[in-house]
Automatic annotation (TrEMBL):
GO biological process entries: post-embryonic development
Keyword annotations from UniProtKB, A to Z: DNA-binding, Metal-binding, Nucleus, Transcription, Transcription regulation, Zinc, Zinc-finger
Protein name per its UniProtKB record: Zinc finger BED domain-containing protein RICESLEEPER 2-like
One GO MF term: DNA binding
Annotated SUPFAM superfamilies: beta-beta-alpha zinc fingers, Ribonuclease H-like
UniProt-annotated location(s): Nucleus
Top-level division of the source organism's lineage: Eukaryota
Length: 655
């Protein structure tokens, strides 16, 4: 009886010990401390996260195992290879081996990987470092790595802890002070999209292996992205910039347009529409509004419809003052259709008198191209010589060797012209004339070279270059984009007209023929006064009306015709001034509203105050009637009557 009681007491004590070991094991294993270090038998894990009561005694007389209630069912890929054997009280039997659960939190930061040779490693989920795999289940060295892993610490403390770095500076600037740095994923994506837009890189570049390797090397936090994502970022930037430009154009009163149309080598037509305007600080601004494809046919109606659609999209169709186009018949037709549309909507500014502006640079190009046709034989020898020399690297090398022997400038190079650009022909003649002594010497070394220019050819080319220099200077003036150019139009036209008058009486027949041909084009396009350019010249304080009178007397040899053109200009500038005066008055609040007091105050006004108000009103009416009768000068009259700086004007015209 006593032995039986002792047996059950031992039994209960045994069960209590295992329950205590199970509870203590849950607490210690969270810190990576094995139970075997404390001399406590390992607990066999048999089930899931439910508690299991002690089972009946096994057939071998041993006690059943206790299940740790805090453990979760392990995944096959994350089980530890260390096997733990179920321990019984008498140790007579050994149940089947089972893998120990990974209870340490360190396994959330590591993954067990198998190498090609079958060796297992513990790989850090942040920096990808591979540490030794131990069958003992020790995690102390893994904890040490977690405390020193820079990538892990950056991901945890990146939002609060900052890194010192030097600020981004220009290459020529001096080194500044240290500043704090924080990796901004959105900023990196924004800069990457802008880089692709500005430098016209393909979207697929972000998927290139070495680009991703470069970005990962610069910053391990960089996240790879696809070309679809980058394209979406670029479109977001486009939408944002378009919204900004819309807001900017909304604060502008008047906008001038320039447009051009051309066909690519893939036979695809494109049209570009650019807006020019003055901002609130009176700074000249320009923005490319649209760059769109234009399906054929490129008729005037198609061009006008495309331009009107773009203006409607930007919401500025009621702000257009002028449009500048090339001198093509389809553009003339497009302007007529646009005028009709604007007149119907009452959007046409100043009655359309200055709506259409012909491109001055294009007029010069057409004019000079017609003149170069007359002297084609003179230029063809130089062109063929340059084409022959540049057609082979061996010939070009031999040509440069001769130039060095003659101690000519090594920085000069032969230039081949483009048939559609006359200024490239001028550049070709200018560069070839520097090597006029090299061509005959090269001819002695290369018998296949047949088109060598003679001494007379170079004399003719020299006179042609002197003649074309005036047109080249005018083209550079008209093509400026960082400064207003309309006010510079009239002096350049006068210089060209003066050049024609001198050349048509030249002794050289080829110069006469070229000048007459170009003068016909000049009279065709500038026979009618370009009104906007003349008004711009008048508004230049250096010139005013005196320059118009002087230039018209030179351009129009008939005195009656010159006076008639001057009267047209005077009427136009006064009409434009009165137009702005009326527009300004319509925008000002009425005098009655400004003088009137708050509502209900008339009841409290004394009789004396009423008499004063009545007397003041009568005086105002009398003063207005007197002012309307008495002659007065407008601001425009005062401006035109001011004295000019004659020395400055003479200097400008001489230049």
């Amino acid at each position: 009886m006593v032995a039986n009681k002792c047996f059950w007491m031992v039994k209960l004590l045994d069960q209590a010990m295992f329950l205590f070991a199970s509870y203590l094991g849950n607490s210690l294993t969270q810190f990576g401390i094995p139970l075997t270090r404390l001399g406590i038998p390992s607990v066999v894990l048999l089930g899931d996260d439910t508690n299991t009561t002690p089972g009946p005694q096994s057939e071998a007389g041993g006690n059943s195992a206790i299940v740790n209630s805090s453990q979760e069912a392990p995944d096959e890929g994350q089980r530890n290879s260390t096997d733990t054997t179920e321990t019984t009280m008498n140790g007579d039997t050994d149940p089947p081996e089972k893998k120990k659960r990974k209870t340490s939190k360190v396994w959330n930061e590591f993954t067990v990987v198998s190498l090609k040779d079958g060796i297992k490693k513990n790989q850090c989920n942040y920096c990808r470092a591979r540490l030794a795999y131990q069958n003992t289940g020790s995690t102390t060295y893994l904890n040490r790595h977690m405390l020193t892993c820079g990538v892990r610490l950056a991901s945890i403390f990146g939002k609060t802890q900052q890194v010192l770095t030097l600020p981004t500076m220009e290459p020529d600037s001096k080194i500044g002070n240290l500043t704090s740095f924080r990796y901004d994923k959105e900023k990196v994506r924004d800069i990457l999209a802008k880089m692709i837009i500005v430098h016209e890189y393909p979207f697929r570049m972000v998927e290139h292996a070495f680009f991703q390797l470069l970005m990962k090397t610069l910053n391990p936090k960089f996240e790879s992205m696809s070309r679809v994502t980058v394209r979406a970022d670029c479109m977001k930037i486009y939408a944002l910039e378009k919204k900004k430009i819309k807001a900017l154009l909304g604060s502008v009163d008047r906008i001038s347009l320039t447009s051009d149309l051309w066909t690519s080598n893939q036979t695809i037509g494109y049209m570009c529409l650019t807006a020019h305007f003055l901002d609130n600080d009176w700074n000249l601004q320009k923005r490319v509004l649209n760059f769109i494809s234009m399906p054929p046919p490129h008729t005037g109606l198609m061009i006008s419809d495309s331009i009107f659609s773009c203006l409607n999209d930007w919401g500025i169709k009621n702000k257009i003052s002028t449009i500048t186009l090339d001198n093509v018949s389809s553009n003339d037709s497009a302007v007529r259709h646009l005028k009709d549309s604007f007149t119907l909507k009452k959007y046409l500014f100043f009655g359309g008198k200055i709506f259409h502006v012909r491109c001055c640079a294009h007029i010069l190009n057409i004019m000079v191209q017609d003149g170069l046709i007359v002297i084609h034989d003179i230029i063809s020898k130089v062109r063929e010589s340059v084409k022959y020399i540049k057609g082979s690297s061996a010939r070009l090398h031999k040509f440069n060797e001769i130039a060095r022997q003659l101690q000519l400038s090594s920085t000069k190079r032969l230039v081949l012209d483009v048939s559609t650009r006359w200024n490239s022909t001028y550049a070709m003649l200018l560069s070839a004339s520097e090597f006029k002594d090299v061509f005959p010497r090269y001819h002695e070394r290369d018998p296949n070279y047949k088109s060598v220019p003679s001494y007379e050819d170079w004399e003719k080319a020299s006179k042609i270059m002197e003649f074309l220099e005036v047109f080249n200077e005018a083209t550079n003036v008209f093509s400026g984009y960082e400064y207003p150019t309309a006010n510079l139009f009239l002096p350049e036209v006068w210089k060209i007209k003066q050049l024609f008058e001198l050349t048509v009486v030249d002794d050289c027949e080829y110069m006469k023929a070229m000048a007459f041909k170009m003068k016909d084009k000049f009279d065709k396009y500038w026979g009618e006064c370009n009104l906007l350019m003349i008004i711009a010249s008048i508004l230049d304080p250096r010139y005013k009306m005196q320059l118009v009178i002087f230039c018209f007397s030179k351009i129009y040899l008939n005195e009656f015709e010159a006076k008639m053109k001057i009267d047209v200009v005077k009427d136009a500038i006064y009409d434009l001034y009165n137009y702005y005066v009326e527009m300004h008055k319509s925008q000002q609040p009425s005098q009655t509203n400004m003088d009137s007091g708050p509502s209900g105050s008339s009841n409290n006004t004394s009789l004396l105050e009423k008499n004063k108000t009545k007397s003041r009103s009568e005086f105002d009416m009398w003063a207005q009637s007197v002012e309307s009768i008495a002659p007065s000068k407008s601001d425009l009259d005062a401006y035109l009557e001011e004295v000019m700086n004659h020395e400055l004007v003479v200097y400008e015209l001489a230049v």
